[in-house]
Amino acid sequence: MTDASGKVVLDVGAGTGNLAPLLPADAEYMAIDIDAARIRSLERKCPGARCMVGSALDTGLEDDAADWSVCNGLAHHLEDEDVPRLIAELARVTRERLVFVEPLWPGKHLINGVLWRYDRGSHPRPESTLLSALRAHFEIDSVERFWPSQEVMLCVARPIKQHDAPTATAGASDDAPAGQSRSVAA
Fold first, then answer.
1. N or C: which terminal CB in the chain sees fewer CB atoms within 10 Å?
2. What's the pLDDT at 169?
3. What φ, ψ does residue 72 adopt, rounded to 5°?
């Protein structure tokens, strides 16, 4: 996150603000979460942050309000019909870069399946579904999968704005082996 120096960074679904300490001191931290108690806790933890209680589906922010947006572990809490709305809102408020982190559908992985029984989010999705939703509004720069306790996808992307022409992502595969990164040429 050191590249965020001097940037406005929006934490969508911020919870208690675990992202804030990872940002450079000169980054402006904005946070939105639907849970007012979590936002109050975040305000105590990060007194200089701009904190908002609100929905990730309709943030109320201006277009391009943030240089970067980070959405960590939020999509699996949403119904299927709300994921495209989330992605569209992220594209609308993000000027330069999105960092999208999301646990993946367990598939054949037994441990993943067991862990999902204890997660409050009840809508895990496969990587291909998430990437398809993201590609509707973002150019994918890189995708990585890792296993902190269950399989997680980390995607870095740039918003496609109205004046930008979509470019092909030929050669991008949704099936890179776990733990490997793939980059998509811009």
1. C
2. 43
3. -115, 110
